[in-house]
Amino acid sequence: MSADPTTIRVRYDAGHVMLSGAVEQELVITAQTMLNQLLETASQRSTDSIAIATGAYAIDRVIKRTSDINNECGIRTFRVVFEVADAAFWSAPDITEMLTDILWHLTGDTWLVSFSQRDMLYQTSSVQRLLGLKDPRPTRAALYSGGLDSAAGLANQVISTDETYILLTVGHHPSIRSSSLHQVATLRNLLHPKPLHHASFIVKFNGGVAGKMKAQETSQRVRGLLFYTTAAVLAEACGIEEIEVFENGVGAINLPLTEGGMVDGLSTRGAHPGVLAKIGQLLSKTLDKPIRFSLPFLHSTKAEMLRTLADRAHLPDWLKLSRSCIHSSLRISGKRHCGQCAACIERRQAFRAAGITEDIRDYDFDLFGGATPKEPGYLLTYLENARWWITEHPRVRSRLERHRILSDMTQLPLASIESLLMRHAKESLDTYGDLDLRDAA
């Protein structure tokens, strides 16, 4: 029987993930020695989980969203067969349902997922996992992206605890690895904490339909699943159950600014408390060990995370080493931030509200320089929502309540979320409220 041409098959072998069928693409996984040793000795099911997460991440990036009159949000339908070593486990209805539910929450797309048994097991070693970690051994685990939240979160945690962290950086370009390693090394020199163990894991497309960035889907909603899965396998090998995600509460909850953002796949849901709980449940079953993800700064704004560090010697300058811009391929000499995207708007607001002066030369566009942004729509909507929160407009309060239900966050007290969003709204208006955007309206 010939293969279904509409189905994508995913296969993993020794650091390579292959997509075949409806799409042909290869991904290469590169890791530091520590993680290479882990991948070589991981259990069959652990390797399955990395193969599934990497394959789903690849599919999400190589098949671009297209919208038309009948599909304004560009919602996609994927038929995927994952080749796995433990097909019986993954094909169990509750496991398949958990995985597809997570993928839907992350992307807003329809995932028709099935599993086939590999013809041979992964080539792994039976030798006990030795990650080459120096004493003291890590007692905490966290993801580290090199962004502003990661930097502020790590600095705050290192200052407040004597425990030893192992950090994981996952990215799609070697520059993410090098910049993150530099940031962490610099923080070590500034604070002299207990050792900060740091591992990195890079996935890179090898030719195929996504050989160039312009051919790829830019929303990349499944990357969170790849981050969390790899972190769980690493944490489990270290005997750690809890993985910390350094994300401010506004970003984690990520209430859409418009009604359309409530149902489409264009709103980031990667750090939603409800989604993190679902991923933790799936990975706990997969690894046969308890795994949970926590948000230490769920009740803080980004500015509040920075404000606690503003008066510490050298830390404000260290925070500026982080990168926030969504345009990862920005190629303007001496500029690391466009200055106009949603992430740059939040970054500048956080630094200003925290009382930290930035070097505007880091930005291609200065929001406070008097000129109107080229695409001011987001900033206008952002400020409109802030004003609604300050006046307790029923529109945003109703949207939040529906968002809690759709995102499985009803366990979070509504009053605490509203307080967080109102504080953020005040910070936003204090920062941008006096900008003259009349010509942009």
From TrEMBL:
InterPro entries: QueC, Rossmann-like_a/b/a_fold. This is 7-cyano-7-deazaguanine synthase. It is an enzyme of class 6 (ligase). Pfam families: QueC (PF06508). It comes from the Bacteria. Keywords: ATP-binding, Ligase, Metal-binding, Nucleotide-binding, Queuosine biosynthesis, Zinc. GO terms for molecular function: ATP binding; ligase activity; metal ion binding. One of its GO terms (biological process) is tRNA queuosine(34) biosynthetic process. It catalyses: 7-carboxy-7-carbaguanine + NH4(+) + 2 ATP = 7-cyano-7-carbaguanine + 2 AMP + 2 diphosphate + 2 H(+). The keyword Nuclease does not apply. Pathway: Purine metabolism; 7-cyano-7-deazaguanine biosynthesis. Its EC number is 6.3.4.20. SUPFAM superfamilies: Adenine nucleotide alpha hydrolases-like. Belongs to the QueC family.
